[in-house]
Write a structure and sequence with these properties.
The complex is a heterodimer.
Chain A lengths: L8 E4 L5 H17 L1 H6 L2 E9 L18 E5 H10 L11 E3 L1 E6 L5 E5 L8 E5 H15 L3 E4 L4 E6 L7 E5 L4 E9 L6 H5 L4 E2 L5 E10 L5 E7 L2 E7 L4 E9 H9 L2 H10 L10 H17 L12 E4 L5 E5 L3 E2 L8 H20 L7 H29 L4 H15 L2 H12 L1
Parallel strand pairs in A: 1-2, 1-8, 2-11, 5-14
Antiparallel strand pairs in A: 3-7, 4-7, 5-6, 9-10, 10-11, 12-19, 13-16, 13-17, 13-18, 14-15, 15-16
Chain B lengths: L1 H24 L17 H8 L13 H21 L10 E5 L5 H8 L3 E6 L2 H11 L9 E5 L2 H6 L6 E5 L8 H11 L5 E7 L3 H14 L16 H10 L2 E12 L4 E6 L13 E8 L1
Parallel strand pairs in B: 1-2, 1-4, 2-3, 4-5
Antiparallel strand pairs in B: 5-8, 6-7, 6-8
């Protein structure tokens, strides 16, 4: 990074939701008509790179007795990259759960597949709380010294070109601070203010799904990730240390509301037969009976590493349920992928291109430089979008032949270790 | 062959002839001077570039491969300067003159690496284009000065620099020996001089003239004259005769498909000069 030594970075925190942004803009406009000269008097601060959306605010104490519900699965190669950069070791690694076994079940059919890493000692992925990773990164940035400024608790009020100035965009924050960027990077999510400023459109299927997340307390220690493709959307139980697990469930709006508002103990019970009864149309009585029977069976079993089903759910961490809309849309040019792991690959690609450009004395804000990034990433992101779409449509199908074919495919794949290894390698990439 | 002999002969008898010439062109504000009367810039050459000067910064236009090559040239200059001064993380504070800066491709890049760059070019249009473009990057302010003048005019002002750079220029000047002499004069004692140009070979005729000017029609016809190209041995001899030591020469090989430019060793494998059959960059150090 020698060539970027003099490069100054600024992180502005995640942009506000649309309504709030509009409100801020309007207030700003009002202020501008009242005291136009005062608004213009705020001098611009020039940066080589401004990143809008530096991730969630990471301060505050972390609960010691449970795990936070907002989590990330980091692939092995991305963990290596974060280690190389130096930010991984700044995280609390005791709260990270490596896992090397994934069991995927099909929802309404009977297909199942077990994925192990090719050699036993390799880790497929790491479960980490988002806050843990972000605070590790912020610690790392702190240790880097003067060239990076972190602007916390900031809203983006407006992004615009400034008349009579250089052709660099000016990011105006809620507190009227104005940052002018040679290169503006938007990592501010589906409703990105940077994307709108750059007039980049979106395309793709709007799945109208919601994500429901929660922290589960299991009855046994667990190192396996379980995923079940239900017609309503995939549900995953992902391992954490000390018998905790992270639930990530993609749902349509009505189901999400019901699951989010039901009492926590009832929700914990529901989780126990999630892998058996959801979608079966069973009555509440049947579900309760089934649940009690399962509690018995699971109490006697302790061979969790061989199980096709996750360990019993003892409880749900208080107030750990949370939901958010899933916006699975892609953008039409010059931008990154969705999902953290593809995002880390985007970052690696962009950093490498910017570093080479900086060492050659190029202006890193020019289209000529950024086109190289686009060439490297666009095709892969497009391919990923296609895969997500196909998985989505396959698993949301309930028509008999498709369900049958899906089960056969999953069971068939499970019997071909070579094919599975290829799948696992691709997942780890 | 004839031009080689003439060039080398000129190199040997140059110093005394040159000193009188410099005395006669010295003095006066650079802008008032009639550039066409300069010894090393021919009027025809000047007009040729003026017509395309607006295209300097179009990375897909006539200068597409020059932009690509500029990245590699800059990285080469940067790493060689770091070889000489390992203590410098960047080029901060080093003064560099870019002789024949054109639209400012190399000048801007070197200024961005931290050097104090003076870009000089005899063509008014080039300097205008370079100045306008530099305003688009406020980071360059204070690190980059452009002057419309010739190398001799700067020599006459007795200015010297920590490094002298002249890229893809010498093949356009009327008297290359006199030109190199000016470059050497501009260097402080011990300072490096970087010259990039084209070898006079069958390959350079193809890749530097026939393909870009007559087949791809990317570069205006007549931009280059093959007879003015200079072989690395000739340039080495001129530089050594003028009181410098040639430290390195490497080939600049374009890959038009991936739009990349590679540095290659002068002798690739067992084949002597195989790497410098067309474009090359040479580094010399003033004694």
């Amino acid at each position: 990074m020698a060539g970027l030594n003099a490069t100054r970075f600024a992180f502005a925190a995640r942009a506000l939701k649309r309504a709030q942004t509009r409100f801020s803009t309007r207030r700003l406009a009002t202020a501008a008509t009242a005291t136009e000269s005062a608004a213009a008097a705020q001098p611009v601060e020039r940066y080589d790179i401004v990143i809008v959306g530096g991730g969630p605010h990471a301060a505050g104490s972390r609960p010691a007795d449970t795990f936070l519900n907002r989590t990330l699965q980091i692939t092995a190669s991305n963990k290596l990259y974060l280690e190389k950069v130096g930010s991984w070791s700044m995280c609390n690694t005791e709260r990270v759960q490596p896992y090397d076994r994934v069991v995927a079940l099909d929802g309404s059919g009977s297909g199942r597949i077990e994925l192990n890493t090719p050699s036993g000692d390799v880790t497929a992925a790491y479960m980490i709380e988002t806050k843990n990773l972000v605070s590790g990164m912020l610690k790392f940035i702190d240790a880097q010294g003067a060239n990076i400024d972190v602007v916390e608790k900031a809203k983006v009020a407006n992004i615009a070109h400034e008349a009579g100035s250089v052709d660099w965009p000016v990011v105006t924050l809620g507190n009227k601070r104005r940052l002018q960027a040679r290169l503006l990077v938007g990592t501010d999510g589906g409703n990105s203010s940077v994307r709108k400023f750059a007039d980049i459109g979106t395309y793709g299927t709007d799945y109208e799904q919601y994500g429901l997340i929660a922290t589960l307390c299991l009855e046994q220690l667990n190192r396996t990730a379980y995923q079940r493709f239900l017609p309503e959307g995939p549900v995953a139980v992902l391992p954490f240390p000390n018998g905790f697990a992270n639930l990530v469930w993609s749902l349509p709006a009505d189901l999400m509301r019901a699951l989010k508002t039901m009492p926590e103990d009832a929700f914990a019970l529901l989780m126990q037969y999630l892998y058996g009864l959801v979608g079966s149309g069973a009555s509440e009585r049947e579900i309760m009976d089934e649940t009690k029977w399962r509690l018995d069976v699971f109490a006697k079993s302790n061979a969790s590493e061989e199980n096709w089903l996750p360990p019993n759910v003892a409880a749900i961490s208080p107030k750990s349920r949370m939901s958010f809309p899933l916006r699975l849309r892609s953008v039409d040019r010059l931008v990154g992928s969705r999902g953290l792991n593809m995002g880390i690959e985007d970052v690696q690609s962009l950093v490498q291109i910017l570093e080479q450009a900086a060492l050659a004395g190029e202006d890193i804000g020019t289209v000529g430089v950024l086109e190289r990034y686009n060439r490297q990433r666009y095709v892969r992101n497009l391919a990923m979008q296609g895969v997500v779409d196909k998985v989505w449509h396959t698993f949301s199908a309930t028509a008999g032949p498709i369900v049958k074919a899906r089960s056969m495919l999953m069971n068939g794949l499970d019997r071909f270790p070579a094919a599975k290894d290829i799948l696992v390698k691709n997942m780890m990439m | 062959m004839l031009s080689t002999i003439r060039t080398l002969a000129a190199a040997r008898r140059l110093p005394s002839a040159l000193s009188t010439r410099l005395l006669t062109t010295g003095g006066g504000a650079p802008r008032d001077l009639d550039t066409s009367s300069s010894h090393t810039v021919s009027l025809a050459e000047l007009q040729k570039f003026t017509s395309v000067s607006n295209e300097w910064w179009d990375t897909q236009g006539a200068f597409k491969y020059l932009h690509t090559m500029n990245r590699t040239r800059t990285q080469y200059i940067r790493s060689r300067l770091r070889d000489l001064h390992p203590e410098l993380a960047r080029l901060t504070g080093r003064t560099i003159i870019d002789v024949g800066c054109g639209g400012g491709l190399a000048s801007e890049a070197l200024a961005r690496l931290g050097a104090h760059v003076t870009g000089v070019d005899a063509a008014q249009e080039n300097i205008a284009v370079a100045r306008i473009h530099a305003q688009q990057d406020p980071g360059l302010a204070g690190n980059l000065v452009y002057r419309q003048c010739t190398a001799e005019q700067v020599v006459a002002e007795k200015q010297q620099f920590d490094a002298v750079v002249s890229l893809e220029v010498i093949e356009h000047v009327r008297d290359p020996v006199h030109f190199v002499h000016s470059l050497v004069e501009l260097a402080k004692p011990g300072a490096p001089i970087f010259i990039s140009t084209m070898n006079r070979t069958v390959l350079s005729l193809l890749v530097d003239i026939v393909v870009p000017e007559y087949i791809l029609n990317m570069v205006p016809r007549g931009t280059h004259q093959h007879s003015k190209f200079i072989a690395p041995e000739e340039l080495t001899e001129i530089l050594q005769a003028l009181g410098t030591r040639v430290l390195d020469v490497q080939g600049l090989v374009m890959d038009p498909i991936m739009n990349k430019c590679h540095l290659v060793d002068r002798d690739m494998g067992l084949v002597r000069n195989a790497g410098v059959q067309a474009n090359y960059i040479m580094m010399a150090r003033k004694n």
